[in-house]
Amino acid sequence: MTISTYLTDNSNWIDERSAAAITQVTDAQWPAVLAALDEYSGGATDPGIDCNVAITHETLADFDDARANHWSERGSRDEHNFDGIAAIKYERFQLARGQERRDMVVLDLGDVRLSLY
Q1: What number of other Cβ atoms are within 10 A of residue 40's Cβ?
Q2: CA dist 106 to 60, 72, 79, Å?
Q3: pLDDT digits (tens, 9 = 90+) for 43-84
Q4: Are 83 and 35 in contact (CB under 8 A)?
Q5: Which of 14, 72, 97, 105 could share a disulfide with 40, CB 3.0–4.6 Å?
Q6: What local confidence, expressed as pLDDT, does residue 1 receive?
């Protein structure tokens, strides 16, 4: 399935921000995004529906730096490779005290990173 088909078929369920992020993914990168979401969620494979999607220019190293120096609780970190695309999975981290603990996978798409959270 192409990204444009996915977005068209699921337009009623995907918010504008996630849809805008998904449009930055190429059809060749799409299988890696689905594999990363499967790792993130344990079986869900609908980006923008089963999780939020965001694009950032921060590097994977920037995420690691923020984790080491700014996050309230670091949680766990695992490196992955999905169809040749480097990714990091962060589990049970907390950005600031009192906030909910989260999980996230960040994929390095070259010029940008894609976050599934």
Answers
A1: 22
A2: 7, 19, 10
A3: 888 999 999 999 999 999 999 999 999 999 999 999 999 999
A4: yes
A5: 105
A6: 81
Contact 82, 36 (CB under 8 A): yes
Residue with tokens 């923008």: 48
Token readout for 117 is 């959270």
Phi and psi angles of residue 46, each rounded to the nearest 5 degrees, phi first: -125, 85
Residue bearing the bigger pLDDT, 45 or 85 = 85
**Contact criterion met (CB below 8 Å) for 88 and 79:** yes
